[in-house]
Amino acid sequence: MPPEPVVLAFDTSAAHCAAAVVSGSRILAQRIEPMDKGQAERLMPLLAEVLAEAQMGYAGLSAIGVGTGPGNFTGVRISVAAARGLALGLGIPAIGVSGFEALAAGLPDDVVTLLDARRGALWVAGKGLEPQLMDPPVFPDQIKGRPLAGHRAAELALQTGGTLLEQPLPMAVAIARLAAARLGTPQPRPAPMYLRAADAALPTEPPPVILP
């Protein structure tokens, strides 16, 4: 019987740097470090640390799993760029998993997942509900009375008549398992999931002319 594929997964879409090494049902190593900034500097050392804890090297990996957001604009780009670079260098697939998918892993099909969109808003998605920005106390009709999981789920369940569900897996572990389940099927290159423009606005003045 062939060995289970080994997946290295990571996520920096929120105020954390998370990584895990998973093989089948076994969690070989996993870590999540809260941080508001500094993910770009911390990510690669963290990956080396979880691989060492799992007694694995990059050469033993079957795939890379990466969180694609939605979330912090810069954080999502950090992870996606790292995943693409590692996949190219190692010759293995990189598989993107949204935060909504990771939160819903192992939960009932009708769960509504909630992610922090900052400034009091939430990103929300679920069966029959396209990913969108939600600004409580205004709720889409589709979430009322349904099970909720994620950011502020307990609070919103009380307001919408729903029930609270807890995601049983750490974020990076859920991403790794979903990525492993998609191995062997056609997958697009990981790309950031952006549901609103970046907070930093682009300059309105034309760029300077570069002389030959």
Describe the structure.
The structure is a single chain. Helix 4 (153-160) links the parallel strand 9 and strand 10. The chain is built from 5 helices and 10 strands, in the order E-E-E-H-E-H-E-H-E-E-E-E-H-E-H. It has 212 residues and is of the alpha/beta class. Helix 1 crosses helix 2.
Secondary structure elements and pairings:
Blueprint: E1 6-11, E2 16-23, E3 26-34, H1 39-53, E4 63-67, H2 73-90, E5 94-97, H3 99-104, E6 112-116, E7 122-126, E8 129-134, E9 147-150, H4 153-160, E10 163-164, H5 171-182
Parallel strand pairs: 1-4, 4-5, 6-9, 9-10
Antiparallel strand pairs: 1-2, 2-3, 6-7, 7-8
Number of helices: 5
Summarize the biggest pleated sheet: 5 strands, mixed
Proportion of residues in helical segments: 25-40%
Strand ordering within the main sheet = 3-2-1-4-5
Low-confidence stretches: 198-204
For the record, give the distance between the C-alpha atoms at the N and C termini, rounded to a whole number.
Answer: 62 Å
Order of helices and strands: EEEHEHEHEEEEHEH
**Total DSSP E strands:** 10
- Rg: 18 Å
Backbone shape: globular
What is the SS-derived class? alpha/beta
Q: Roughly what fraction of the amino acids lie in strands?
A: 25-35%
If you average the pLDDT, what whole number results?
Answer: 92
